[in-house]
Amino acid sequence: MPATIALVDDDRNILTSVSMTLEQEGFQVRTYTDGESALQGLLARPADLAVLDIKMPRMDGMELLQRLRQRSAMPVVFLTSKDEEVDELMGLRLGADDYITKPFSQRLLLERIRALLRRNEASRAEGSGAPPSGVITRGELVLDETKHTCTWKGHDIQLTVTEFLLVKALALRPGMVKNRDQLIDAAYGENIYVDDRTIDSHVKRVRKKFRQVDNDFAQIETLYGIGYRYKES
């Protein structure tokens, strides 16, 4: 079945033009003009990916993303006219997977959507470094690629696609340092440019999620000026 994309934007011109482009590429599209209706719709009928505007009536994109992340790890792309760094970092801290600033190329948006869907699918499949079952176990950490689940000391950790792939990249080679470029390739794939600070924001959010169930979590170590590594307990 074709993937379902949810578009949430109060600009009907954008909804119409982007919908036409995605439908021409074979996607199913559902549109919403405000955050409240989008939240109700997406909780009732989840999509495979959502594209959210930040500035919207009734509920802005930041609050919508925050509410969605309580129930879903669905990939999310922010689409916004704002271009301030603080907005991007806030979105990433809340769990967005990508961020595109208006005005934008629809081809670029399409490329990002396809990349996220590929990563989402890949994260559910068995990786070359994983055992045949698709389960990676590193001490108290268990990653199930087939089910896209993560547990730490038996507690479920809700990770986005990007976060899951970052943790996987580090956990596959415990003790080995991964620089930011390597983590960008692991989480975003090649030919996608992402600023180094984006990786830092994702790592901070991952740590926060683990520390919500274990205050002593310290397995993801920072080597300043170099990158990150996973310390197996």
UniProtKB/TrEMBL annotation:
Annotated ranges, domain OmpR/PhoB-type: 133-232
Annotated SMART domains: REC (SM00448), Trans_reg_C (SM00862)
UniProt subcellular location: Cytoplasm
Main subcellular location of this protein, as a coarse class: cytoplasm
Residue(s) carrying 4-aspartylphosphate: 53
Superkingdom, natural source: Bacteria
Source organism (scientific name): Roseicella frigidaeris
Domain Response regulatory positions: 4-117
Protein name: DNA-binding response regulator
InterPro entries registered for this protein in UniProt: CheY-like_superfamily, OmpR/PhoB-type_DNA-bd, Sig_transdc_resp-reg_C-effctor, Sig_transdc_resp-reg_receiver, WalR-like, WH-like_DNA-bd_sf
One BP term from GO: positive regulation of DNA-templated transcription
